[in-house]
Specification:
Helices cover 4% and strands 40% of the residues. It has one helix and ten strands. The longest helix is centred in the last third of the chain and has 7 residues, at 164-170.
Amino acid sequence: MSSDNHGVRKAEVRLKWDPSPWDRPPHHLDIIAATYSADDPFGQPVYIVHFDSRSPDGTINMSRHSQTGQGFGYVEAMTLELDRLASSFARVVVGVAIHQNSGFKTFGDISDAGVLVVEGYRELLKDNFAQLSGHTAATVAEFTRNASGTWEFHEMLRGFDSDPVIFTAEMGSTRYP
């Protein structure tokens, strides 16, 4: 959880993974963010942001996207400008999903996968999915707006066994301690 009084204003979620061997189909992972209203913070998302979309108001968007993992370091990134989100939003859940269209893959099948959540130079979360190795998707972060209107970060490492489409419906539907 964010400990300073201004809360989290602008966060970036970064994703990395090694490309698949040359004789195998590429590994394709995606960062996905789901926004939830203050009226129903654990219901259906108001909207979903992923590689092929951005938020209607431009506050959540992908700044880098990879379909193969090729590149140096973190090859995919999503920016969340939480301080610009309308007051009607109370929660944003961020996850990572593995595309299953070239065969069943879990995080354990992907070499050197990792996620990093930062606010400026401050690291909020760094994980390598080792504890989620048997899963095909995972939530990694939850941002919630508190009573004073500031956003707080909560680590939310939780595995799912669904494809990216089903994952978007499941990822924020339950409370996580």
